[in-house]
Amino acid sequence: QKEVEQNSGPLSVPEGAIASLNCTYSDRGSQSFFWYRQYSGKSPELIMSIYSNGDKEDGRFTAQLNKASQYVSLLIRDSQPSDSATYLCAVNNYGQNFVFGPGTRLSVLP
Amino acid sequence: GAVVSQHPSWVICKSGTSVKIECRSLDFQATTMFWYRQFPKQSLMLMATSNEGSKATYEQGVEKDKFLINHASLTLSTLTVTSAHPEDSSFYICSARDGVGEKLFFGSGTQLSVL
Fold it and tell me: Looking at per-residue confidence, does B99 or A110 come out higher?
């Protein structure tokens, strides 16, 4: 069974700190990896995608992928209270469904 | 990113009635759309995969006769909750792959409350 795992949290960080969110996946055939942000009562919003090993930076967000370790992470620099949300990791093997992790709740304390 | 529109945003209905939720891809064609359900503080649960022009594929445990899915065009999929009961109250979210098929974008969700 293909699985995506995340710590449920909550992960609490002070404002201005770096938040580190982690995700592991079981399907070695996975090709593409995504991070979604979901505010309470809202639908998920795509914030990052990554397809090859290494780092990918977009503003305050950095996604890291290590296919050998089957590990994806998301770093949020200079965390803001507005970053407080649930972050969902999603994995896709082309042609098949996207598999979502359970999400990690992040709380950024002012 | 691609835009997926979902309506209504919220609906309140009486037990026993049916509710239809629409999901539209506004700026791309979506041969495949997905329907999820999410209870408060729980993770997304995939209900079914909607394929244009063919029958939907339902996940294990999801009643296909209760959750009717129609994907009649490349830009529209509908989910009808038939004979709704209070336990069907939930947040329903649709999603679609973008035109390239690489990324998944979500509609804004529908909060269903069955009295």
Answer: A110
